[in-house]
Amino acid sequence: MTDETLSASDAAPSTAVRAEAGRARLSLRFSARDLLSVAIFAVIYFVIVFVVAMLGIVSPLVMLITLPLSPIAAGIPYMLFLTRVRHAGMVALFGIVVALIFLMMGHPWQSTLITVAASLLAELVLWAGKYRSRWAAIWAYTVFSVWFIGPWVPFFLDRDAYLLAQSKGTMGSDYMSAFADTVTIPAVLIMVAASVVCGFLGALLGTATLRKHFRKAGLA
Question: Is the pLDDT of residue 5 over 70?
Fold first, then answer.
């Protein structure tokens, strides 16, 4: 056997390994480890977003300012979750779990549909990157952050009915009066747009913070 033959035989396995590493796994069979990862990170994501959203109790203006910050804070655990994604379906399932948790917390059904749709789009972005692209992961989280418009769908459809429903809640009359003056349709649209931009920034922060994890996961 010649040196050239040995070199070719040595190179073949490494080439096969690289090809296998770059191949998207399309199996939808979830292991117990997959389901555990989805559940844990979905809860962590929810808790972070919920805690930041609670700052809105201070005032409606504080709510509009702080809500877009939650995608930045939640970007690190979401991107860490992506390093554990082994095949198609995990990101979509993550979004479905998050949507159901928020539904149980009182979000409108329209928000659930938008969150599920955003998670499916995020899945497609990752699939396009063969689950091995760092930039696909960044854009997947940015796309997923579009769900922040979901809770405001009833507000856009009928602002007066939305304000009436909110006034029957636990917030006082002074808060609701300030809410009606501050939370306008343009203000909410700006807040949602800022949330998507902050989703992109949160993804960048997550990838920078978890650079070693991304390398180990093969996300180039």
Answer: no
